[in-house]
Inverse folding.
């Protein structure tokens, strides 16, 4: 999930609010506040071809998505599959989706191999979480053919497993998606006291289509922390890599966009059924729309398709350029992109979220996608924002998640400290490669400023490597996980050099492709690349991820916020006043 870019918007907009309140003026006079981070983004028009308008799903291809572990050919090194396909769960889904009313009626069969999923099988069922309409219906639940009574509590379905052996689960589910708020986007000003989970609106219907993230019951990794109540911060992904075949039936004229590959299309009685297949993916999320058109490019053997509204076609070409350049860089640095297609979709986002990753697909919020926020260019100029750079940063952050949470999985509620800081660090790698002159400014703006802003809000530093449930507000989560934690990789680079750091990350991908990792695996992979610095790497992980040295390790006085962070840290009463004024 990309909270940070959009959070930067919110934080900077909040900074504008501060200015309006006069508080910033006080701060400036007291502490010499600087202004403008000087980020200068450059728009790039990719040489992309535009797919036929309104074309449904993938143009026909001779091959299905590459089996896990087969190099996509975009990079130089193969990704070794682990675990092997025989140890991956398989999903067979048939679902009818009615876009007008948002109804979903599905039949699901999951084959869970021995040793996968744990003694009890748990499935994430977002549609049954609080705030999703309360109309989720489950029926016909069987385990190995025997009818069972499912335990469905909040967003977690639990089924007893007869024994640790291969198990087949079947169920039927239906629900109606709620209408999302198109205005969510990045303008959700103060939400720190809101009880809304960040994942709201990942499963919702909008004017431009249906966003169907976490839309069917997905097996949760046996070691993952999974609570029925949604965490307020962060995403929910915690599924082992699996193989999915889904038959999705929609009215004629609608596209079904997913992280898989369309292998068959059939039409009957005004309805079209698309067969989507994804291999080595954790979840097959969907966007169903009759409004989006695709811009298509090839990167090596990978087809990159960017879906946008017709009005945002120019932005789609820019985004396509970001993605194709980023894919070449990340494939070289981390290992080949393993799937044959990637769909990038302009989609409404929850308030305060800039983008959302799936496997073989990611979504980008309209303002990050276009690099514009309607009616706000004046404020953007006032606070020194460069929306195009922020949008580019968001796009490549989401792209990087194809490696960090896609190929290499994590439990996002338990170990979010692995994938988000790596996605942040990777976005910076991209900028140093593609826009070296502005990389330092953009990275400071996209990363460390979240920490500085958190301290300006008088939020204390804290441990990064902890469950997302433990973060109680947006500022702390953004500041510590997105703002501070990526600094670990810079600190390690200073010790072992960039080449060995990348070799370590490449090794992490090679050793754990299609598996799940924790922070310990990250440390082990980096140590393997630089055994002479093994102890320092472990010490740095502890310092950045398990302790609270942010104020020593991050210069609170650098960047556009000037000395405000230091001033707030040293003047608790002033910080308290500021929080009251801002309703935090
Ligand atoms: Zn992210």
């Amino acid at each position: 999930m990309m909270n940070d870019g959009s959070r930067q918007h919110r934080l900077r907009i909040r900074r504008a609010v501060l200015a309006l309140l006069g508080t910033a003026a006080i701060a400036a006079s007291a502490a010499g506040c600087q202004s403008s981070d000087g980020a200068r983004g450059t728009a790039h028009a990719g040489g992309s071809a535009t797919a036929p308008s309104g074309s449904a799903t993938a143009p026909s291809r001779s091959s299905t998505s590459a089996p896990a572990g087969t190099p996509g050919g975009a990079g130089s090194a193969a990704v070794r599959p682990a675990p092997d396909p025989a140890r991956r769960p398989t999903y067979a889904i048939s679902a009818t989706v009615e876009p007008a009313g948002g109804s979903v009626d599905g039949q699901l069969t999951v084959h869970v191999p021995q040793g996968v999923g744990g003694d009890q099988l748990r499935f994430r069922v977002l549609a049954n979480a609080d705030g999703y309409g309360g109309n989720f219906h489950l029926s016909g639940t069987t385990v190995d053919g025997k009818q069972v009574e499912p335990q469905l509590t909040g967003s977690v379905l639990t089924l007893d497993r007869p024994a640790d052996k291969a198990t087949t689960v079947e169920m039927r589910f239906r629900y109606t998606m709620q209408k999302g708020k198109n205005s969510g986007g990045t303008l959700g000003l103060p939400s720190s006291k809101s009880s809304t989970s960040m994942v709201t609106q990942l499963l919702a219907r909008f004017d431009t289509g249906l966003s169907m993230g976490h839309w069917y019951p997905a097996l949760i990794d046996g070691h993952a922390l999974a609570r029925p109540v949604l965490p307020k911060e962060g995403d929910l992904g915690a599924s082992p890599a699996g193989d999915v075949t889904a038959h999705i039936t929609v009215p004629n004229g609608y596209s079904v966009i997913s992280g898989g590959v369309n292998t068959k299309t059939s039409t009957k009685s005004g309805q079209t059924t698309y067969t989507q297949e994804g291999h080595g993916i954790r979840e097959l999320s969907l966007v169903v729309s009759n409004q989006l058109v695709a811009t298509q490019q090839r990167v090596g053997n990978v087809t990159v398709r960017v879906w946008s509204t017709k009005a945002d076609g120019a932005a789609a070409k820019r985004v396509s350029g970001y993605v194709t350049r980023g894919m070449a860089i990340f494939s070289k640095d981390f290992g080949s992109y393993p799937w044959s297609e990637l769909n990038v979709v302009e989609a409404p986002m929850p308030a305060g979220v800039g983008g959302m990753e799936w496997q073989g697909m990611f979504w980008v919020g309209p303002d990050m996608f276009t690099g514009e926020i309607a009616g706000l260019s004046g404020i953007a100029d006032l606070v020194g924002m460069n929306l195009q750079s922020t949008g580019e940063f968001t796009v490549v952050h989401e792209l990087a998640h194809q490696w960090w949470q896609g190929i290499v999985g994590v439990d996002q509620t338990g170990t979010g400290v692995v994938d988000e800081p790596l996605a942040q660090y990777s976005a910076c790698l991209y900028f140093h490669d593609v826009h070296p002159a502005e990389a330092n400014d953009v990275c400071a703006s996209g990363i460390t400023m979240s920490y500085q802003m958190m301290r300006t809000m008088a939020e204390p530093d804290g441990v990064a490597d902890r469950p997302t449930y433990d973060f109680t507000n947006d500022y702390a989560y953004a500041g510590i996980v997105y703002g501070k934690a990526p600094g670990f990789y810079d600190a390690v680079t200073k010790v072992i050099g960039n080449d060995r750091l990348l070799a370590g990350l490449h090794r992490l991908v090679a050793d754990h492709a299609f598996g799940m990792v924790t922070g310990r695996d990250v440390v082990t992979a980096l140590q393997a690349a630089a055994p002479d610095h093994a102890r320092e790497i472990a010490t740095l992980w502890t310092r950045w991820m398990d302790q609270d040295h942010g104020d020593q390790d991050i210069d609170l006085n650098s960047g556009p916020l000037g000395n405000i962070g230091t001033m707030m840290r040293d003047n608790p009463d002033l910080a308290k006043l500021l929080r009251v004024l801002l309703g935090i």
About this structure: The chain has two domains: 5-35+54-79+366-581, 85-297.
